[in-house]
Amino acid sequence: MRNYTRLEKILFISSPFNPRKLKDELSGKTVLITGASSGIGREFAYLLADTAAHLVLVARREESMKFMKERIEKSSASVTVFPADLRNEEEVDDLLAFLHGLPDGLDVIVSNAGISINRPIARSLNRYHDFTRTMALNYFAPVKLLLSLIPLLEKKNGHILNISTINALLLPVPHWAAYQASKTAFDTWLRSAEPELKNRNISTTSIYLPLVRTPMIEPTPAYQKAPAMSPVHVAEIIGEAMYSKRKVYKPWWLIFGQLASVVFRAPLSFVMPRLIKKKE
Question: Does 219 have pLDDT greater than 80?
Fold first, then answer.
């Protein structure tokens, strides 16, 4: 449920979601959802329960996805659970072999799996793995999946939806180097590939999200009381993008943040080190 505060209702305006249009769009189609066992991925899978789609759910938590499958299949959608850690290349290869063997092909990919790390560089000096594991899931995994699956999508006039972050479009901030670099890398990759994919009749959508109230933000105490989107709301935004084929979703206020990132780049570069030093 969306139990939004007054501020959140202003920041996160309801999307024009039409369940009937989504149902018509996905009838008989196969949809791959990565990061499906919790948060945005879980709520989006539940949103598709009343469609006639075949959902392929991918995440590490198999038991959670089995529970979802049981619940979803009480409605009209069918579900295949494929447990995999997308940071593991062998498990990605197994997933790709399964997807290439689907009798009805693949129509839609929702690239949602991701990992977030909030850690100062000073505490990462002996933690190079913070960066390799973040890049492995947020960048290399979706790139590897798409390079293999583009021929399948081309056959079905498919659709790729990337669940990105507003940070990819804003001035980078301290303590989030691993996360921001990895998310920006895939965002740039997909935007660069978009014209080529369009020539193959493959649609792309980039969904730039602010803070979302999911398990990913729980390790950061400062986020507990900060304004955050409901994952149910985000699921409806993804659903609307599926049938509208919109290229981009951004919060209405993001344009002001982007302008500020340009106008105040120099002053922020001067002030930020001093603010960080005070907190240390």
Answer: no
